[in-house]
Amino acid sequence: MPKTNPLVKICGLTSEEQALQVAKLGANAIGIISVEESPRYVSAEIKKKIFKTLENFYPKIDRVTVVQNCPIDLIIKNFLGKPSETIIQLHGDEDIDYCKKIRKYIPNIGLWKAFRIKTEEDIDKIKPFEDFIDAILLDSWNKETYGGSGKKINSIYLKNLQFNKPWWLAGGISIEWIDEILTEIKPDGLDISSSIEISPGYKDIKKTENIFKFLKGI
Ligand SMILES: O=C(O)c1ccccc1NCC(=O)[C@H](O)[C@H](O)COP(=O)(O)O
């Protein structure tokens, strides 16, 4: 039996207009990419603007900033005080010490850690992080990019996963795969990006709507 419907994060938004459209459709979390190498990169200034608008109109939606191997001092400097995001998603090779420092210096923000899965051993490496993060995000491993590749994790590694923290599945999630995800993989959340894009950072709102309708069983 599938567990209750998973939460949905739509990631890689680049405009206020699309962020509001996706929020209206029912997203539980909206992600913005603060990784300069990404074609979905959004500057700090624009990100703040988008998140402020979201906070005003949809305060319950999590606002997720995605970073990748960013120097810890910079993270602490940028996110101290009254940050516009509710979650930092670490999408690089950050270690446990890095997570502990974020916890210590910016305790008012949620911390998600992405793990890129290439082999079964990559799953085994997650456990020690669990006490220092709020959620686990599993994404596929890719040579060219750390995220947003549209590539799936080998499903062999996704059977009977058990973590002590909520976990999100990412990597090539499209409407065609969701049924299997709900019945066999059963994550707490779905993180979706490139399958609903017209071009990197620009979402197809109709495709996005179809995903939410599918999940609601409409
Ligand atoms: O999306 C990016 O361009 C990106 C670049 C560098 C680090 C992380 C990135 N995205 C992180 C995400 O949370 C994506 O939603 C996740 O990788 C899934 O993407 P997709 O396979 O395209 O659905």
UniProtKB/TrEMBL annotation:
InterPro entries: Aldolase_TIM, PRAI_dom, RibuloseP-bd_barrel, TrpF_fam. The keyword Magnesium does not apply. CDD domains: PRAI. Its EC number is 5.3.1.24. It catalyses: N-(5-phospho-beta-D-ribosyl)anthranilate = 1-(2-carboxyphenylamino)-1-deoxy-D-ribulose 5-phosphate. The keyword Ribosomal protein does not apply. PANTHER family: N-(5'-PHOSPHORIBOSYL)ANTHRANILATE ISOMERASE (PTHR42894). GO terms for biological process: L-tryptophan biosynthetic process. Pathway: Amino-acid biosynthesis; L-tryptophan biosynthesis; L-tryptophan from chorismate: step 3/5. Keywords: Amino-acid biosynthesis, Aromatic amino acid biosynthesis, Isomerase, Tryptophan biosynthesis. It comes from the Bacteria. GO terms for molecular function: phosphoribosylanthranilate isomerase activity. It holds the Pfam family PRAI. Belongs to the TrpF family. This is N-(5'-phosphoribosyl)anthranilate isomerase. Residues 8-213 form the N-(5'phosphoribosyl) anthranilate isomerase (PRAI) domain. It comes from Prochlorococcus marinus (strain MIT 9301).
